[in-house]
Amino acid sequence: MIYTVKNENETKNIAKDLSKKCKTGDVICLFGTLGMGKSVFAREFIRSASDNPNLDVPSPTFTMLQTYDCKEYVVYHFDLYRIKDPSEAWELGLEEALYDGVSLIEWSENLASMLPRKRIDVIISQESNQDPCERTITIKGM
């Protein structure tokens, strides 16, 4: 599925829709360069899954992991921007998260070959001919 979004609200709507389709054991890998909207997507996914539009969802850039007890499942929100070696993710509890909840992983590319085969990839990009606020969101693996 490929979407062209014109603003953050449209990105949030896609995140909300995806949160309603997920179940325990799903792994969502977010790909995109800095500033593409991965955190916007993740934040809205978690708020929707928790059924709390005002939930404080800080970026786990420094803690690398935040967990949220949501209505249907637990969300494990990883931000792997700062890991140097894929094995570091296991120290954060990635293996447990893969089975016990929905794993939402920003900077998934830092896991390299350790990415699970069964996953949902959300790729957020900006084409050179797009308006600066527009993004292309590609979802694979649904």
Write the layout of secondary structure elements.
Blueprint: E1 2-5, H1 8-21, E2 27-31, H2 38-50, E3 65-69, E4 74-79, H3 88-91, H4 94-100, E5 102-106, E6 120-125, E7 135-140
Parallel strand pairs: 2-5, 2-6, 4-5
Antiparallel strand pairs: 1-7, 3-4, 6-7
Helix pairs in contact: 1-2
Short summary:
This protein has 142 residues and is of the alpha/beta class. The chain is 27% helix and 26% strand.
What topology, given as strand order, has the largest sheet? 1-7-6-2-5-4-3
Mean pLDDT: 88
Please give the count of helices: 4
Total number of strands: 7
Low-confidence stretches: none
Main sheet record: 7 strands, mixed
Percent range of helical residues: 25-40%
Strand content: 25-35%
The sequence of SSEs as H and E is: EHEHEEHHEEE
Span between N and C termini?
9 Å
Which class of secondary structure composition applies to the elements?
alpha/beta
Characterize the overall form: globular
Radius of gyration: 14 Å
Structure, described:
It is a single chain. With 142 residues, the protein is an alpha/beta fold. 27% of the residues lie in helices and 26% in strands. Strands 1-7-6-2-5-4-3 form a 7-stranded mixed β-sheet, sandwiched between helices. Helix 1 (8-21) crosses helix 2. It starts with a strand and ends with a strand.
Structure characteristics:
142 residues; alpha/beta; 27% helix
